[in-house]
Design the sequence.
């Protein structure tokens, strides 16, 4: 009797596999890689591009962090290759508590601090622990894309509240309060703001704290750029106010302050119950941040801190360089000078937006992007990437209020800042 079994050739098997219809979860279907990451990846295909895109400190890690990590590799050889137990290396969490104390924030290192894989890891785990299907999250916008996307991934509904460009992107307390409904679970604050560089005043933040306390809301506070303030501005955290302490879930990171973005270490600072639930999500997700990175963070927090002010001063100088270049191109840009972080968020002129003309690869990439992001500023950013070799992030990546803008990072090398503006000016003037 002839066997019914059939031998598939490699090509036939490949064709069979292509017929598989994946049934992705609703969570996966309602989110996507951010435009920030997409532009970063697209740039890899463009030779000799110059980037004002992803915000990565251009400095090497401080020498003493490298030295401390080298020492840890030798003296902690039996531990550094293993999972860390609990909510982070105990000496690291204690060092974090000491650092926070200098900012007026009192936190128990054993119960109220969770070491995470960067602030982004902490944001993901905590949002997943606190945001349920249908919960509304009020987000002043333009806003860091991650805050919007993780809310959506968790099943929540982002409610963006416009930060007015004409008001220097300051918080609008009335608009925040009016956005709150019976479904609201939380308010998100990013201070200094990414992408606008706004540093919120203590008075403005305390008013939001009062709103959160009166409405029994969570206040997610992203402090990734806390040390980067300019012109005498000062960073203030609501976690330092005892009456708001239980409402605040604060995120901190070593990434920017110590030039450690790739090592992925951050912290959640919150009420013990919140930390415990976020820890549970982290354990399911990635167990713990890399042990070796935690030892590097310990070296960073316990060593000399001279570089922090040096970094801040250098970023302030580069901010001024970028602002001067923007001032030279008023026909293309209008902007608000940032007081913090390392971003400028200029509005594109109507002429540039109307003359967008992505062709070839730029047009192909535009078609790959989610429909809600297929806006004029995205077309301009792709046109710049493939036509001028300049990486910028479309403003729509930061919420609907970002439409018509680009985000530039002045964490780039100074020569790259000049080269990028030279290329943009030449490209647009040729096309005029």
Sequence:
């Amino acid at each position: 009797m002839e066997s019914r079994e059939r031998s598939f050739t490699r090509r036939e098997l490949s064709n069979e596999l292509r017929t598989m219809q994946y049934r992705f979860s609703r969570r996966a279907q309602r989110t996507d890689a951010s435009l920030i990451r997409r532009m970063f990846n697209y740039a890899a295909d463009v030779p000799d591009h110059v980037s004002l895109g992803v915000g990565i400190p251009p400095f090497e890690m401080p020498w003493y962090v490298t030295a401390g990590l080298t020492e840890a590799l030798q003296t902690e050889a039996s531990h550094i290759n293993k999972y860390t137990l609990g909510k982070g290396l105990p000496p690291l969490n204690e060092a974090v508590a000491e650092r926070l104390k200098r900012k007026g924030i009192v936190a128990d290192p054993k119960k109220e601090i969770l070491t995470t894989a960067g602030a982004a890891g902490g944001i993901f785990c905590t949002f997943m622990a606190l945001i349920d299907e249908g919960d509304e999250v009020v987000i002043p916008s333009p806003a860091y894309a991650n805050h919007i996307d993780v809310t959506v991934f968790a099943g929540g509904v982002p409610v963006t509240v416009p930060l007015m460009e004409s008001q220097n992107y300051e918080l609008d307390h009335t608009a925040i309060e009016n956005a709150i409904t019976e479904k609201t679970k939380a308010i998100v604050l990013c201070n200094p703001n990414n992408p606008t560089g706004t540093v919120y005043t203590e008075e403005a933040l305390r008013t939001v704290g009062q709103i959160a306390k009166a409405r029994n809301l969570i206040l997610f506070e992203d402090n990734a750029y806390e040390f980067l303030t300019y012109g005498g501005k000062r960073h203030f955290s609501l976690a330092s106010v005892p009456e708001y302490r239980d409402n605040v879930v604060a995120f901190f990171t070593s990434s920017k302050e110590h030039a450690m973005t790739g090592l992925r270490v951050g912290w959640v600072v919150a009420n013990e119950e919140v930390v415990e639930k976020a820890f549970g999500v982290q354990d399911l997700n990635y167990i713990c941040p890399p042990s070796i990175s935690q030892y590097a963070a310990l070296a960073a927090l316990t060593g000399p801190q001279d570089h922090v002010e040096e970094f801040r001063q250098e970023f302030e100088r580069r901010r001024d360089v970028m602002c001067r270049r923007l001032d030279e191109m008023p026909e293309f840009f209008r902007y608000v000078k940032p007081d913090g972080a390392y971003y400028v968020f200029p509005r594109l002129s109507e002429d540039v937006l109307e003359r967008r003309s992505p062709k070839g690869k730029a047009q192909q990439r535009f078609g790959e992007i989610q429909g809600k992001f297929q806006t004029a500023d995205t077309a301009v950013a792709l046109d710049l990437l493939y036509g001028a070799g300049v990486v910028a992030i479309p403003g729509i990546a930061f919420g609907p209020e970002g439409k018509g803008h680009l985000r530039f990072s002045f964490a780039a090398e100074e020569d790259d800042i000049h080269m990028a503006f030279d290329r943009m000016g030449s490209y647009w003037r040729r096309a005029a």
